[in-house]
Every structure is written in structure tokens, then in C-alpha cells.
Amino acid sequence: MNDFVAETYQPIKTAEISGSSSIHPFPGISFSELPQNKLHRLSPVHKRSFGSEIINGKVVFSDEFGNRFTSVTYKGLPPIDEIPFIEDDGWCASGFRTKFLCDTDDSKDINEISKTLRSKGLNTEHIIKETLLDHIIYGGAKISIPDLKNQMRVAYYDSHPNLKPEQKTKIDKYINEAKYVALERLLPVNERLIDIDYALTSTNFDRFISSLKTYFDEEYQGVKFDGSPQSMFDYLTKVLPVRMGRYLGKFHQAGYIHRYATVHNWLLTGDLCDLDGVEKINPQSSTFDDYKNDLGQTYIALGGLYERIFQEFFIKHNLLSVENKKPEKKIAQEAFSFFTEAYANETGISIEQLNKFSDFGELKRYD
């Protein structure tokens, strides 16, 4: 197995999870019995998120609403691959966001949105612990948070040379008050759609099936996760798009727009995670235009998914029977129809309008 192991990290003890009344390990295992965690990245695209190799896919938890989780991940640990910087963001109360770090305003919003979604049966990330950071590690160097703030302040000033005094006061206030945290969180599964790119060996492919098998109790909607490529094919092409359509429709009806509904944030279970960019809306006064970005990104995610799994895995490794070797565009169109019908049923938006929007040529702007 090709794990991408973090060479250095600040471990966050998971034993504290047992003290939370909202987290219930299923019978058979307790955190006190687990050995020291080894953190790993599932693939190179998991820049800031590390999973617990001991726990992920082997232990099932539930929250107070009965949602299931099989993955414990850590986001924002000191060794990071991108240097943080401050960007303007009109959706944030402060008007700013620190890219590649999570501040306490972000975590507060994530907690609030997560609880609302989970109470409605929409599974997503569930923060179970926050650790205040006093430094980051970038390029092997330890940078204190005060020094990092000074660097980000200079960089922001340099990129905005014509700031007015009141604008400088606003950005200085944000920088001075910002507190950055590492998050320990539960996810339904750790695998995301983008990780299909790295499931090119039988070992990693088995890992995907095993993860789904744990989450769904071996069978879901007639698909048995028996380890066969055919079961994975059936799940990805027939079940997953329906789950994604229902989820996104209910997500929008709950009064939220994700803004980053991409292959990086759609989990293999058809649930969305990474809620730090979510925008609140009023579904009673919203229009189709409000949903276009999420829909466009999701259609692109589905189209890209089927192109990859056919060109890079199923056909390349001769894992499908001849009758299932349809052109990936046709498979994507069939999946689009499953997604579209499920989304339309949840929102009342017409299938005709969605079909017109999901024309391949119209989606390029969302890629």
C-alpha cells in the first residue's frame, strides 16, 4: 500500500473522544484499547488532512442523531504544504479568510452548520476537538503564529498597495484577533472522489471497497460490497449519483450553498465535507442562479469521475465485462440523469431546466 506518511506531526490524543456524550463507539472496541495512531494521507491531494491508520475503516461511531462515521481525521496540523495567506472573502463576517489555516470563527461556523445538517440526516464532518496552534511548520521550518501573522500582514499590504486607512484598520483587526486551530474530526469515510485517481492498484482498490463495506454494513441499495470490481462499478454508476443528488437537494433546501462542491469535498459516500466556505441562504427567496455554482461543480465532479474510473482503472485493468465497457461519456450522461432526478425530487426544480444546465458545453465555466 502506498501511504503518504507525515514525517513529523503534533499528535492529538484521541482518548478524549470517549468523554464526549455525542460520540458512541459501536460495541467491540474502545479508544483505550487502540495503539498509538499512525497518521497518513490517503493520497497526495490531501494537503492538510491526515487520517488515523489504526481507526479509519475499522471502527464505526455514531453521533447523537444516529449518523455513522468510520474515519478520524486531523486537519491543520503544524506541518503544512502551502504557506498561509490572507484573502478577501465577503462571505465571512470579518471580510477576510486565512487560506490553508482554520481560525476559531471558521470552526464556530463549521460546528453550527454541521449540527444543523446532521440533525436533518445529512452526514458531514463532525469536529470533536480543537487545539490552539502556537506555530506552524512549513518547509521544515518552525514559524510562530505571531511571526506568521506579521508575514501575512506584509504580504497582504504588498498585494493591496492602495489601501485606505479604514481598510488597514479592518485588516489589522482581523490579523490581531485571529486564533488558529487544528481540528480533530469525524468523517463518514476518509475517501473522496478525487482519490479515485490514486486507486490504481488492487490494494488501494480493496481499501475503497472495504471502507464502503464498513460504512454501509456490507450491502446498500442492492449493491453487495463483496470485493468485486463489478460491485464498485454498480455503486459508482448507479447508487452514488442518486445519493449525491438527494444530498445536494436537501443541503440547498436546508438553506446552505457549499461553494466548493468539487471532487475534493464530495466523499465516496455521497456526502459533502469541508464546510468552512458554506454560505447561508433563504431557500424561500433563492433562485436557480443561487444553486448554479454547486450544481456545476458537482456535474463536473461526476463527469471527471467516470472519465477517470474508466480510462485509468476499470478498462485499463480489464476489470469489467465487455457489455459494461460503454464510452465514459455515455456512462456520465446516465449518472447525470440519476443525479438530476434525485436533485429535482428534493428541490422541485424541473428536470428540463437541470438537463439544459448540465449540457457538457455549459459546464466549462464551473471547472
Describe this structure in words.
By secondary structure, this protein is of the alpha+beta class. Helices cover 38% and strands 17% of the residues. The longest helix is centred in the last third of the chain and has 27 residues, at 288-314. It is globular. The relative contact order is 0.11. Residues 1-36 have low confidence and may be disordered.
Number of helices: 8
Percent helix: 25-40%
Give the strand content: 15-25%
Shape: globular
Question: Order of SSEs, N→C?
Answer: EEEEEEEEEEEHEEEHHEHEEHEEHHH
Regions with pLDDT < 50 over 5+ consecutive residues?
1-36
Total strand segments: 19
Largest sheet: 7 strands, antiparallel
Measured on Cα atoms, how large is the radius of gyration?
A: 21 Å
Query: What separation lies between the terminal Cα atoms?
Result: 31 Å
Mean pLDDT: 79
* Alpha-beta classification: alpha+beta
Any descriptors?
367 residues; alpha+beta; 7-stranded antiparallel β-sheet; 3-stranded antiparallel β-sheet; 38% helix; globular; disordered N terminus
Topology:
Layout (H helix, E strand, L loop, with lengths): L3 E2 L18 E2 L13 E3 L7 E4 L8 E2 L5 E2 L1 E5 L3 E2 L4 E4 L7 E4 L2 E2 H16 L6 E7 L2 E4 L2 E4 H15 L5 H13 L2 E8 L14 H15 L2 E2 L2 E2 L4 H25 L2 E2 L21 E2 L7 H27 L13 H20 L3 H7 L10
Helix pairs in contact: 2-3, 5-6, 5-7, 6-7
Quick summary:
The chain has helices at 104-119, 145-159, 165-177, 202-216, 229-253, 288-314, 328-347, 351-357; strands at 4-5, 24-25, 39-41, 49-52, 61-62, 68-69, 71-75, 79-80, 85-88, 96-99, 102-103, 126-132, 135-138, 141-144, 180-187, 219-220, 223-224, 256-257, 279-280.
